[in-house]
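hey so u asked for the seq, here:
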Amino acid sequence: MSLYEEVGGQPFFERLVDAFYDALESDATVRPMYPEDLSEAKLHMVLFLSQYWGGPPSYMEQRGHPRLRMRHAPFRITKKARDGWLAAMNAALASVRGELNDEQFAEMESYFSMAAQQLRNV
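ran it, structure tokens below
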């Protein structure tokens, strides 16, 4: 069974992404990198995370290969921006902690830490 299935599918990732963007609202470094209306960004992130963790390939069908480094290249992702993004994601993970077992939590935490570091480009 995939992590996507274990956590209950797309609704879990919708809660995680909503919590992430709620936490990001107060970050003066990272929030300006996103459009004012977050609807599309939220949808893309939900679809990406769902697919990454074993859900349907909706992200690929709608947007093609994720190419995360290329999609993030236009943004100056400094150490401060990386840390702000990761703090928001860690807050989001903490908000859904009760829905995850220790292994699932550690796997997600590790992935987000690695991804944040990989996307740093300054």
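The two ends are 38 Å apart (CA to CA). The mean pLDDT is 97.
lmk if thats what u needed
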